[in-house]
Amino acid sequence: MDAFDNQKMIIGSVEWCGLADLNIPAIKARVDSGAKTSAIHAFNIEEFKRGEAFWVRFELHPLQKNITTTVECEAEVIDRRLVKNSGGVAEERYVIKTPVSLGGKTWDIELTLTNRDSMGYRMLLGREAMGGRVLVDPGESLMLGKRSGAEIRKSYNIVRPEKAAR
Q1: Which residue stretches of 9-101 are H helix?
Q2: Rounded to 5 degrees, what angle do the CA atoms 28, 32, 33 make?
Q3: Which of 30, 127, 131, 160 has CA 20 to 30 A from 4's CA?
Q4: Which residues are bridge partners to 93 per DSSP?
Q5: How many CA atoms lie within 13 A of 117 on its CB side?
């Protein structure tokens, strides 16, 4: 278990993750041991070639209930898979590999790209990403720490507009 020294961290049903290679300092993920693969909210997905490899360029809104904060990302495509969404409908998705940070630990995970506008969370952390590393307490959330609105705004360089005087 290399960096984990056989110690599994206990996480709740929702946790803050970081995806440094995608310039995502903080994204709230829904932890779902019923989902095999992890997914992230992505739109305006464009495939392109870099050398001999296929890559994707995409945008995402990393924060819940916020469509003004947008991050542009690029990643190498490692696969295209048919994935059933929560409604049981199969869709072909790009798959990328990227490091995830959770609870002070970092490891590589696979993420499928899909539009999660209708979902409550911008990221879904599936069982393949958690295997051997975490135990989930479904009755808890944010066990690895909460983040204040000010902290999140700072991490995304969001300047809050001044409130109008009354």
Answers
A1: none
A2: 145
A3: 30
A4: 81
A5: 6
Separation CA 14–CA 65 (nearest Å): 16
Range 115-150 burial, b when 16+ CB lie within 10 A, else e: ebeebebbbbbbbebbeebbebeeeebebbeeeeee
Distance in angstroms (rounded) separating the CA atoms of residues 78 and 73: 15
Q: pLDDT digit of tens for each residue in the chain (166 aa)? A: 445 456 899 999 999 999 999 999 999 999 998 889 999 999 999 999 999 999 999 999 999 888 889 999 999 999 999 988 777 888 899 999 999 999 999 999 999 999 887 788 999 999 999 988 999 999 999 999 999 988 998 999 887 655 544 4
**DSSP symbol at 20:** G
**8 A C-beta contact, residue 116 and residue 62:** no
